[in-house]
Design goal:
8-stranded antiparallel sheet, alpha+beta, binds fe (ii) ion, 3 domains, globular
Length: about 450
């Protein structure tokens, strides 16, 4: 659903407060208290990869004052923001993206030097926002089947309404729930700040679990109203538990990368491509990636030009270049053609796009798997001219050398005993739409669909 089917004039949401948003003032709207605890990679028994920094995340800490929360909500619920930024992936959920482009308050709050210092201090590393489009991505859970209905439920004053929970709901264990909305995953960007804009009194769930090196799940409480948590979500595997028991739940999220040299950047556009406006995402993505590359190159050039005792370190420079080649390659691969993406999503659906890992797991257990996957990769009839075949060869060589592969699901050596297929390569790169296309071309999608249908009738 999008706004085209909703009222499209300014009078479309007469219940929205017409009062203009406040001006951001850190002395009024912020209420920062440093996190009581920072969780390190070491605490989690995780060996730190080359792209990671030592702090994995924080416990919730106060960030916005009560007035700050209300000012933020007021900024979100403006007609202009709702009209231009709202979409609904499913009933009961509203997503607001790019509010930063229509709200001065939201822009000023997230980009203010004081806020930048807070998130950087909490993460133990200087951070910069990845792209403007990733400032204040807002998820709203509230009742309603249409955008207008849901918007009608939103007030500047946070709702304190609690919902009756059954015993079963109270005993809900997200670690045992396979249908958890957001199962174990890595984020698309290195760091994230999640800020709570709703009352959490009476809420069950809503916490984050981080997977430790020994396989155990470490629980991090969800933030209360006005509180935030920082997470190095691109580097630690985590799960967000479903929240129940409250009439509304509004979180707003900004993504960051480290502003330091020599930290290989683990960003992908995979999770946002299906619903982002690619016409504005790709230029922002390009600027962000090229800026980082430029800073990296400037750093080495400055060293070479200005440090009188700088000795030419051939090996160091070569390793930097190798890293940058991979970085540039990913920058390019992550910009999947909009027409191609649209065509694939139409054919397979967005649900399949977000379910590729489960689909791939299922497909591997089917008797036809090895034959179909092997012959597709041997014949190369699918996209014979594409760069993905080179990528596949490179990964196969990396596996042969027993070196780890960088992927959307962390950096690990290949651990399976079977052959490495194009399906693996495309998922590694977070090219879910290309993966579905390959799966379809190999015949595996049809086998999978039949298997699914026959399972439904069992
Ligand atoms: Fe996440």
């Amino acid at each position: 659903m999008d706004l085209l089917t909703e009222p499209d004039t300014l009078s479309g949401y007469p219940f929205l407060d017409p009062v203009k948003e406040e001006r951001f003032d850190p002395t009024v709207h912020l209420n920062y208290v440093p996190p009581e605890k920072k969780i390190t990679m070491q605490d989690l028994l995780l060996s730190q990869s080359a792209t990671a920094t030592p702090i994995a995340g924080t416990v919730p800490f106060p960030l916005l004052s009560p007035r700050g929360v209300r000012a933020y909500r007021k900024a979100l619920f403006q007609q202009d923001v709702i009209e231009k930024c709202a979409s609904s992936p499913f009933p009961g959920t509203l997503v607001l993206r790019d509010a930063v482009k229509h709200s001065q308050f939201i822009r000023d709050f997230w980009t203010h030097p004081e806020t930048m210092k807070i998130v950087s201090d909490a993460s133990g590393v200087p951070l910069e926002v990845v792209m403007p489009t990733e400032i204040g991505h807002t998820n709203i859970q509230t009742e309603g089947a249409t955008i207008a209905e849901m918007v009608g439920n939103l007030k500047v004053e946070p709702s304190v309404e609690k919902l009756e929970l059954s015993l079963e709901e109270r005993a809900y264990d997200p670690l045992k729930d396979e249908t958890s909305i957001i199962p174990w995953h890595y984020d698309s960007y290195p760091y994230v700040c999640v800020l709570m804009l709703s009352e959490t009194d009476g809420m069950v769930g809503g916490e984050t679990y981080i997977k430790k090196g020994n396989g155990e799940a470490q629980k991090v409480e969800g933030p209360q109203i006005g509180h935030a948590v920082m997470l190095q979500g691109g580097e630690v595997q985590h799960l967000a538990a479903r929240a129940k028991g409250v009439a509304e739940r509004i979180t707003t999220i900004t993504s960051y990368c480290a502003q330091i040299r020599n930290i290989y950047d683990s960003s992908y556009t995979t999770n946002i491509r299906p619903y982002a406006d690619l016409g504005s995402l790709y230029p922002e993505w390009t600027r962000y990636r090229l800026r980082k590359l430029r800073d990296e190159i400037t750093h080495y050039l400055d060293k070479a030009e200005h440090e009188s005792n700088f000795s030419f370190q051939r090996e160091e420079l070569q390793s930097v270049i190798t890293q940058q080649i991979e970085y540039l390659q990913r920058t390019s691969r992550q910009m999947v053609s909009p027409e191609y993406q649209e065509q694939i999503l139409k054919k397979y659906g967005k649900a399949a796009y977000y379910d590729v890992f489960r689909i791939w797991e299922t497909v591997q257990d089917l008797p036809e798997f090895e034959t179909l996957a092997s012959s597709t990769d041997q014949e190369r009839g699918w996209m014979p001219e594409s760069v993905y075949w080179m990528d596949l060869q490179k990964s196969i060589e990396t596996i042969r050398m027993k070196k780890p592969l960088q992927s959307t699901f962390g950096t690990h050596p290949w651990s399976k005993s079977r052959k490495y297929y194009m399906g693996d390569e495309l998922l590694r790169q977070g090219l879910n739409e290309v993966f579905l296309d390959w799966l379809g071309s190999s015949g595996l999608w049809d086998v999978y669909s039949k298997h699914r249908v026959s399972n439904e009738f069992k």
